[in-house]
Amino acid sequence: MPTFPKPVRHLFPDLTGSLRALRGLIRSRLWAQIVFAMVIGVGSGVALSPHGWAWVEPSTADLLAEWFALPGQIFLALVQMIVVPLVICSIILGITSNEDMAALRRVGLRVLPYFLTTTTVAVCIGLSVVLWINPGQYVDQSLVQAQLGSQDAHAVVTSHPQAESALGPTTLSNEALSTAATLPRHIVGVIPTNPLQAALEQSMFQVVIFSILMGLAAASLARRKALPLLDLAGSLMDISMRIVSWGMVLVPFAVFGLLAQITIKVGIDVLLGMGVYVLSVLLGLVLLLTVYLLVILLLGRRNPLTFLGQIKEVMLLAFSTSSSAAVMPVSIQTAEEKMKLPPGIVRFMIPLGATVNMDGTALYQVVAAVFLTQVFGIDLSAGQLILLMVTTIGASIGAPSTPGVGIVILASVLEGFGVPPSGMALIIGVDRILDMSRTSVNVTGDLVATTVISRWLGASDTAEGGLPSKNT
User: Fold this and answer.
1) pTM beyond 0.85, yes or no
2) Is the Cβ–Cβ distance between 126 and 286 less than 8 Å?
3) Rounded to whole angstroms, how far apart are CA atoms 281 and 274?
4) Is pLDDT at 403 greater than 60 in this prediction?
């Protein structure tokens, strides 16, 4: 089989020029700008919200909320514009960056078990926390049923901010979650018969499958035949990162606007009224983050505090945007520039992790599902709890990395467990703050996975290059 030379300055163009603006912002303490914008955004939202201090009329507050969110919407639109070519190019370049096809098999044999293991751990943490705290007992069950009895599940879910765009081809259907008879059809369905349609609909799981197959095929060809594709992928990668560097100028304004908008619309009272449930989810996420830090220490052989210092901008940006896709370019830049991980592994692992490694989302779904069964007086047997865990793990894989999608998937997960459709309205109001938190944990998990896989493959000290060969 023909092989590629090591090397990868040609396959990975020098991104120094296109990333100069991005690195400059990071070095000028972007994290401090983000934190400041978060505080000002929440404060402005409380002052203007009809549910807060109500300094202005509700109609004026709604108008201001839309204008405040404009920079954030522009930033998200820019990232959504380039996320598909970025994922495709990253995965293709990551796969074709090594001359040893055995290295690709070694990556695959490690990545999938790792992702399944961490997701299972996340689900177990969530289930343990919700059964221990039992947040449903702090909610007036009769009052909830009286207020929510006439609501419609689909109407509730689609009214959630950002959730409507997540419905459709990118969301796992109710059929796929409720009956095993459709499993073969859905397995075939992950292969994009029309890659252009998958790209247009941003069906990221199908885009990842297409990219992996393209990368494997290119790696198996003679170098001269694959070189035009690799040149094109390298150029698109460079262009995508340049666009991201332009968008990063908007980040502090985007953070301020998005947080101000959600605070104006929801208010603080909603968050306080569901405090025990919110704290249950946040406690589970903190415990999962602690597990990640232990993994970094024991398997990644890195100082956890140093690791957190390197990724703080990524975590803050993820918290503000609630989108793993929006943070993906910054995650790639952080892993390569700050963490000194090899581009071949980074550009394969980060897009893949943003699509299939949703540990924070899986944890949240388990806590929310059991919480709603507690509120509505539904006792789950041990078998049903195990089924819920398995269903949650499956639902979190391939979930769209867009804001609000967790609540949409949860509606599908709950269908077979006896929770009334109206129950979704109970957690809609506080979902955004939890969405922001679990997204931060999701992107942290992607960076942890990339670090660990690099270490396992003996490439943790390689600043540039592809996947390590067998003799590395």
Assistant:
1) no
2) no
3) 11
4) no
Q: Can you list the alpha helix ranges (DSSP code H) found in 299-380?
A: 304-321, 324-337, 343-356, 359-375
Structure tokens at 102: 């055995």
The span from the CA of 309 to the CA of 321, in Å, is 20
Domains of the chain from N-terminus onward: 20-456 (1.10.3860.10)
Six-digit token pair at 121? 């751990």
341 burial level (CB within 10 Å; 0-12, 13-18, 19+)? buried
* Mean pLDDT, range 337-357, rounded to an integer: 84
The first and second tokens of residue 48, run together, are 């203007």
Q: Which residue has the higher pLDDT, 231 or 184?
A: 231
Sequence letter at residue 78 = L
CA distance 144 to 375: 8
Helix (H, G, I), strand (E, B) or coil at 470: coil
From residue 203, alpha-carbon distances to 155, 194, 351 in Å are: 23, 11, 13
Q: In terms of Cα–Cα distance, which of 463, 342, 448 is closest to 94? A: 342
